[in-house]
Amino acid sequence: MGRLILLDPGPASRYGLLNVEAWRAVEGGPVFFPAGHPMAEALRRVSAEVQEVEGSPPLAWRPVLDRARAGVAVFVLPPGGDPETARGLARLAAGEGLEVEAVFSGAPGEFLLELVATMAKLRAPGGCPWDREQTHESLARYLAEEAAEVLDAIARGEREHLAEELGDLLLQVVFHSEIAAEEGAFDIDRVARATVEKLVRRHPHVFGEAVARSPEDVVARWEVLKAEERGGHPGDLPTSLSALYLAEKVLRRLGSSAFGFPDDAVRTGAALAEIAVRLNQAVAGGRGEEAADGLVQVALLSTWLAQMLGVDLEQLLRRRVLEVWRRESSGEGGREP
Question: What is the reported pTM?
Fold first, then answer.
């Protein structure tokens, strides 16, 4: 029985990229593809027999089906596929007793290339007026909003919505990178390359000879490597973080000794109880400033205790507050909505 392979090369074929399965399908030939296919030159380099298909179907498909009857033929669809052509060819092939096989050249990350190309087109002359006028500064608010919406999707456990929100956040990275490329500062490849280099450098237990026996070992080494990269300096703090996350980062970098806190969970819990007593006395005595200092100590100690217990206090607080809000605002809390 003859065989027809319908190859959907995926969007990345615009840039000459196919996965291993796709290259194996085309390298032996014969290969057919629509006229003007962006992979034409690459296909000619790897296949012994390559032919453009011109004219209107189904007559234009006749050479493809004839070669398939003689053994095997590969038809390469346009980048991103062409369902109508695929269905038409498959229907004709099946009617002639041919075996039909579909091969998709999907590769992880291929749509990232599409995203970069789409963003470049939006920013190019003749592109979108709104996108073209944006700057790093004008986009800052959207970056913060998209990050917040990602956190909301995580808190709600909405995985499909999370994918959409992560896409919106990824768009901000690509958007800023395109603006920087136009300014001659850096481009998306430099962003990605720097990230890859950092991941490799900070994971010597994966890419080198170091050994990490626990997640705690990984975190400790990560902080040491960061400090070494900065010449021993702890580096700048991202001051736009929420106060709880900012406290967590400072505690992680400096340790409890910087604040005079206990270094184990039990003694930290006891310290919290002692502060609570003093806080109550300050409130009862009308000593507002002292009470405020006590509240700060409670917040910092709670953050430190949460770190030791492996709890994300920021997310826990966010989730609890939102649960109360939803219950009370919907009338489920026993009050009128």
Answer: 0.60
